[in-house]
Amino acid sequence: MFRIISNFAAMVLLAFCAQAQAQSNAGAWPNRPIRIQIAFAAGGLADVLARSVTDRVAQTIGQPFILENKPGAGGNLAMESVVRSAPDGYTLLMIGPGLTINGSLYKKLNFDPLKDLSAISAIAIGPYAVYVSSSIPVNNVADLIAYAKTRPGQLNYASVGIGSGGHLAGVLLALAAGVEMTHVPYKGIQSIAPDLVSGQVHMVFNAFGPLNAFVQSGKVKLIGVSSAKRVPQYPDVPSLSESGLPGFDAGGWYALFAPAATPRDVVVRLNSEVVKAFGQREVYDRVEKTGLQPSPQSLNEAAEFVRREAEKWGRAVRASGAVAE
Fold first, then answer.
1. 45-61 and 281-288 helices cross at what angle (nearest 10)?
2. pLDDT tens across 300-319, in order?
3. Residue 219 contacts by C-beta under 8 Å, 6 or more apart in sequence?
4. pLDDT tens profile 14-46
5. CB 141 within 8 A of CB 225
6. First CA to last CA across the chain, in angstroms?
7. pLDDT surpasses 80 at 116
8. Domains of the chain with CATH codes
9. Which residues contact 88 (CB under 8 A, 6 or more apart)?
10. CB of 57 within 8 A of CB of 278?
């Protein structure tokens, strides 16, 4: 009996020591560099945004951030890599709407994006610009809706792929306006541009910037932004919400996540440091210069943001019937 009690006591002591060690390790965070897996190709906007914030955070926590680009499968490669990593605060994820889309879009995933990853904070949020070809008699969103209603299924819109934000924003517009449109997927905006100019495709939801030269030349029209409010950089372009689609709000974003089992105190610290970084004018300005809205969030705000995005994009995926393998 004494031996049994002794063995039990030893097991309790070992468990207590392991827990104490884990708490000690968490309390010592960070004591080595932190990796951020970025679900986008190197050299893009995601790198600029990540560096804008982490350069400042690195100064305050005393450890550098190492950016590792891991594009592919709509963000699934980066997500799974981070989900499978040790939940110790040393491997983070930077991703966009794919995190809230893919759970509905893909037939099978080896992880659950919403359960296996915890939001730290958004970094930047921005609506899509709504571009139409100058080949069609459309000058505003009301014209677009009227044009589509008289030609069910004949108005087509392009996107950079099935299940992309631009594809699903078009689905949401069709649902809100009660119109039928045909989706035409492309591999990238570079392929879309000439067909939009020629009129082979009529509309595209895309980021501000890549089509500006065509807008300035009059070959493409910028008729709206896919948000509830106008964006400061384009004050003369009306939002879809004010253009007959009240409450319409769909756009792109970039946010930081950690594995769901990451110690709470580490997640709280990460969130606090990101929010504090945005309190520095130079950080805020660097993000704003990308054309997106700097968007630091509390942990509760970040969780609620992800929940709303998952509900919205999930509804669009179901309505579209899109499925990815």
1. 170
2. 999 999 999 999 999 999 99
3. 133, 134, 197
4. 444 444 444 444 459 999 999 999 999 999 999
5. no
6. 58
7. yes
8. 35-126+251-320 (3.40.190.150), 129-225 (3.40.190.10)
9. 25, 26, 29, 262, 263, 266
10. no
